[in-house]
Protein 1
Amino acid sequence: MNPVSKDFAPPLKLIAPFFRFGVVFYLFSMMALLFFEPSFNYQQMGVAGWVHLFLLGFVMMIIFGAMAQLIPVVLEVGHAVVDVYYIILPLLATGVIVMVAGFWFMPALLPYGGLLVLIAMIIFAFENVATLKKTELQTLTVSTVKWSNGYLLLGILTGFAIALGLAGDLAIDVSLMLKAHVYAVIGGYVILTIIGLSLILIPMFSLAHGFDETAINRAFKLVITGVGIVFVGALIGLEWMMYIGYAVTFSGVFFYIWQIYIIAKLTVRKELDVWAKSMIFAFATFIVAILLGFVYFLAGGQNVLHAAVWFLFLGFISSMITGHLYKIVPFLVWFERFSPLVGKEKVPMLHEMYSKEGAAMMFNFTVVGVLSGGLGLLFESDILFKAGGSFLFVGGIFLFITMNKMLAYGE
Amino acid sequence: MCSISKENVFDAISTVIDPEVGFNLVEMGLIYDAIIDEETCNVHVIMTLSTQGCPLHQMIKQWVYEAVERIEDVGTVEVEVVWEPAWNISMADDNVKKALGGM
């Protein structure tokens, strides 16, 4: 029997700040979009600063908070040392701020910010490893958690080497290291983690059961292998090897999308709440990003690459995260404040714990923003890109407001 | 002789609501059986959950236990969670299927 009990669940006061900070960083990163032109180069320091604000401040922050809650669910054991999450949060938040300041204003700050992030992530990865050692489960999901943490460590180490290189403290080929870093972090950690978590959460929230898992097993293996090939190819400078890695990763992603299609066909819940809409939008933009990625590999074009990454980051990754926040945060608040009252007094349902109107505004503004901004990048239209940034910023404000109301519910 | 019926047990458990979907466990079809010892009034509930990774697993089990324990003259209560047969929407009442969009 699953021994997942309240004893294993970290307290709300530990997890909630990750979501609060994550949403604030999201809001800032949407605000920062207003200061960019659509014809940028992804190797510019300003762009790198924005990418780190978004990926470390928002994506990683939320993933860390979610993992604090979900690791015990996945592994069926309690955390090894859950209190380290109290240290991880300030280290990561400060590290992000210093790093972004380094990218935008003073490159000499980069190693300091990078070091803080490095320490935060090493603590996170080692706590995960210690927790993994406690579980007797040998499932593919457990194996995936191990691999993703390994890639995270590799990503951080290469990132720190880049920070030293940019500050002039280390003689390395920054562009080669950058490819290894980007692929280890985004493909090896973010995408692999999102695939793993979504395979637990999507069937749970959609009440889909009895589906064949062959496709997702293949997806995990192919993505893990593909990322490894690209990482090694980038480090030793073999471009053909990297292309093989890209192809293997793409085939893994194809199996993942196929698995999601299988689950979608078996979905019992048909109601289109903000979570369901966000999932549909996330996978639609994921497919757009993949198609644009193919076009880039076949025909080239920086604008196509930028649009592909835009739809991947702000369409797929963002919507996967924000959509799930409207499920996970009410659950955490309910679990902490209302579950002890069950059977004693009337308790709210989870869907009653957030503003439907606020969530709808967040979703609608975000959808328009992502589409407009993506088209702006593709066609290098300043007005479309700026409009996209503005819509995303307003969507971010609604996310911030609804998130704070959810966290304050029943206080 | 025990006066508690299976219906009494199911009525008691129907006060337990899944906070995610908003329906009680009985109308969700999650309660498979309730075995009542006619001599001792001991109750053995056999139930499942809609998903194996449910973070509320132990709490829901506890709520079922407490709901049955509130029945007058009940003996010892035991709640067993099983995964076979696996739950599916066809086990739920029609009002649940309709509300979830499955009909």
Protein 2
Amino acid sequence: MAIETNQMRKFLNEPAQVVKESLAGLAAAHHDLLRYDAAAQIIVRKDAPKKGKVALISGGGSGHEPLHGGFVGLGMLDAACPGEVFTSPVPAQMLAATKAVDGGAGVVHIVKNYTGDVLNFKLAAEDAADEGIKVTSVVIDDDVAVQDSLYTAGRRGVGATVLAEKIAGAAAEAGADLTKVTDAVKRVNDRSRSFGVALSSCVPPASGKPIFELPEGQIELGIGIHGEPGRKRATLSSASEVVDVIVEAVVSDLKPKRGAKVLAFVNGMGGTPLLELYLLYGEVDRKLRAAGVEPVRNLVGSYITSLEMAGASLTVLELDEELTKLWDAPVHTPALRWGA
Amino acid sequence: MDAATITSWMREIDAAVRRERDHLVQLDAAIGDGDHGTNMTRGFEAVVQALDGDPGSPPGKLLILAGRTLVSTVGGASGPLWGSALRSGGRVLGEQPTFEGQELVQVLAAALASVKDLGTAAVGDKTMVDALEPAVDALRTRLTAGASIDDALEAAAVAAETGMRATVPMQARKGRASYLGERSVGHQDPGATSTALMIRALQRAVTGST
């Protein structure tokens, strides 16, 4: 039976078991691609470890599905470490994943820039080094809504994470060494910027209450992926005007070359239908061209979500020939599949 | 003070974070992501279980075990931060079966140093450091001035609570609350709040055991 409170209506058996039960379901649905190690709470690519291939792992709190478990498979991640909802996983998970996928060529940790993720991955990388595994870590921090400075936790890692996992995963699949795969993650992060907006909060299963209340007619600008409020609240206007704000925020920070070819990623936060995401993409495509850049690749859909939050984010990645080739390379995971 | 003091401290924390779970969740929902109360409850429940399974260890070893348990069960930022803090504190005591007030100061000072180092936070950043540092200072100052351990710990708990309330007008510079910029002002920091609960728990554990 589903669980219902005043403010929550969700398919649950036992709220505390939601992550484990969901991971078991993911593995049941995609047993041809991956397996679920329930004791270690990790999702591992079926054919891992692949001898001689650099392995990629990522992880973070749950509630962002399909990130990261849905990106385990050919041409993307070798393992994913899901924490509790919106809570970073623990070092033992990353260590187990690192050991499970190391094929002797080293392991890249893709870490979203949240204090918890960074600290837990740091402890895990130290443990892995103690066990003689070569590990590199790249922190993704593409969210322009957060002011960056030496005195803060810095920018959050959001949409660029998906693009980095795809592109670096393709590099690893093609036989690139640890340095090259690590560089691919860094290049995607360096050349990507993101900005998100929300029309509603979301309800974490453990608390059963929305994280914030958005008054009628208001929109949150500069949100992350944890149902948290954004940098500021504004009066809701037309989609076109909202996209003006988003594109301006992303492009003014990315500062792409005039005529640059870009990948435009319009991401749903979990509660916004494709009907609206494509509407947004149409606006994004037009406004990017007006701003002097050419979207030659795109991704539209809900790939890095915040439970059932209504909202969307835009990530723009400035492409070059190599990044484009890696983006186009075959991928076969539960959530992304082409060419394979 | 001895191993029983540590066990009783961890039990007091477990009871306190359980009692204040919803309050911590509320504070965290305002400027973070609302999981602090749940994570701390899960962590200290596991700590109490782990300590129950390890009777006879000296106090330093129990603190290290508690720290390791937090790292492996809490996740988020509080797991590594409190986990490293308790492990650093535990290492100060080594194998010794009992400890005195000044050694407790060293334990807490090592814990504080570990939190500041790993979290790169300082007083004024709106984090657990805002409660922990004044508590360590108060404990040291009072003991050096000749106060009893009970009085010094009462002062430390009050200092932590004062530090906790002082986070309300601050703008967060570390952790997830920093993403809110100016909107983090006007909210009490959840990490400083649970830290104050932990120092108060220590005061209760020691006062009850002496």
